[in-house]
Amino acid sequence: MLNRLLLCWATLLALGATAAPLRVGGFPVAPIVTVGNDGTAQGALREFMEREIVHKAGVPLIWSEITSYGRAVESLRTGQIDILLVTSTRGLEKNPYPMFAWTYLRVHPQLAVARSSPLQSVTSLQQLSGLEIGWAGGAVVIDGLDQIDIKWRMLASPDWQLMNLRKVMAGRIQGAYFENEFSPQYIVQKEKLDIVLLRLPLAERFFTMGYSPRSDPADIARFDRAAAAAFAGEQFRAFLDEYMKR
């Protein structure tokens, strides 16, 4: 009888230890997050997480549909997804969702302009006054950029990055804003665009992930521990550097 009780207890413990799959999603930030043929997340971040978090740490994930920035944030708020794959430390007080304490990538904001642009460097944000600049629809403009008379042209489309760069090439806007240098470098190289990148005089960003307040705290904590270990140091940066060469 005692053995049977012990067996039942062990079974219950095993079931309780099984992590429920977390739904992860977001918006495209190539090559970190791209859209696969099935509409779900692909790219460097998924490959790294599959290896380090799913297989090594045993934390199951479900890869949700990749959408626009606004829809992704709304999906996180309502609990349709548990994890938002890309968010940054900019404007923490304005974020409508909680974020993890660890980071996986340090980045520097960039302005992508046509090679023929009269703007060849940006030493002051005032140089951007009066320019039409593309960015992601729904994104919050902060860091002093909101104090500059920039004519923002926001795109809510999932392929907003490439579309903005093509608009730069066509002369429809004077620049495209990126919070990181990897995205425009990757797309410009892949699409063979005659674009140059100007580093902006803004604070360095740190990419992390957001999570839904509606998600199970135990599942979020389990993911948090696994991700903190996986992203420690510059592990993902090294992986991304190699991914960019493909």
Summary keywords:
246 residues, 33% helix, alpha/beta, disordered N terminus, 7 helices, five-stranded mixed sheet
What order do the helices and strands come in, and which of them pair?
Layout: H1 2-17, E1 22-26, E2 34-35, E3 41-42, H2 44-55, E4 61-66, H3 69-78, E5 83-88, E6 105-107, E7 110-114, E8 132-136, E9 151-155, H4 160-169, E10 175-178, H5 182-191, E11 195-199, E12 205-211, H6 217-230, H7 235-243
Parallel strand pairs: 1-4, 1-5, 8-9, 8-10
Antiparallel strand pairs: 2-3, 5-12, 6-12, 7-10, 7-11
Describe the fold and architecture:
The protein has 246 residues and is an alpha/beta fold. It is 33% helix and 22% strand. It is built from seven helices and twelve strands. It has helices spanning 2-17, 44-55, 69-78, 160-169, 182-191, 217-230, 235-243, and strands spanning 22-26, 34-35, 41-42, 61-66, 83-88, 105-107, 110-114, 132-136, 151-155, 175-178, 195-199, 205-211. Strands 4-1-5-12-6 form a five-stranded mixed sheet, with helices on both faces. Strand 2 and strand 3 (41-42) form a beta hairpin. It is globular, with a radius of gyration of 20 Å. 35% of the residues are buried. The model is unreliable at 1-17 (pLDDT under 50).
Q: Nutshell version of this structure?
A:
The chain is of the alpha/beta class. Helices cover 33% and strands 22% of the residues. A hairpin with a 5-residue loop joins strand 2 and strand 3.
